[in-house]
Amino acid sequence: MSFTIRKQGEIVVVDVEGQLIVGNRQELKQKVLDELEKGEKRFLIDFSQTGYIDSSGLGVLVSLSKKIREQGGELRLANLNDDLKTLFELTKLDTLFQISDSREKALESF
Amino acid sequence: MPKMRVALELEIPSDVHEIERVVELVQAECRRLKIEPEKCSLNVPVALTEALSNAILRGNGEDATKHVRVRACVNKAGDTLVVDVTDEGDGFDLQASTRNCTTPENILREDGRGLYLMQCLVNHVEQFADGGNTVRLTVHRG
Q: For the whole model, what pTM was predicted?
């Protein structure tokens, strides 16, 4: 499991490879907060290479979304597979995030 | 519990980095039992991750000297998997501790989704004392 961060124009894109769970959620949180501290405002997390997410991973996404908004920025999500869509629907987090079917659509939506 | 075959039995230290390895072993058993793919890829891994992280973080308080026992059993028909996760803590009231994380007052909280998800994702969740605090997850095929 790993997180890759790269800039695409004005947007910070984070790829989550593997699981986003209790054992690695702090790493994702810190990486995004570091970028936020540098002044970045637009964030996209791409889940195309993600297996599953647990409650602490979902919690980190909620926390990051709040912190980014407080700084006047925005966090959007892309490429949830059917399992992850189910998870977001069960927790109603699909109503909290703007979620795109592809990275391209997500990038265009900012 | 009716007589069941023990498919997996192990003990792990109270370290959240052990969770993924255990989940992979139980996922493999799910696939052997031909449990539906979405249950193998989502329901079981997430529910088990929640049970293990609760046991490690809350039950054992991340105390390195304490352990978590995991036992996965299969019924005679081979269509039901029962996973027991046992920690060395004092236990908790499953129903009283479960919060509906989808309500407007809870949806923005960072925590509090674990027990709710566990109960959404598997057929039964039980909690009882059995020489330690045990959470039992039951998954049926079909």
A: 0.95
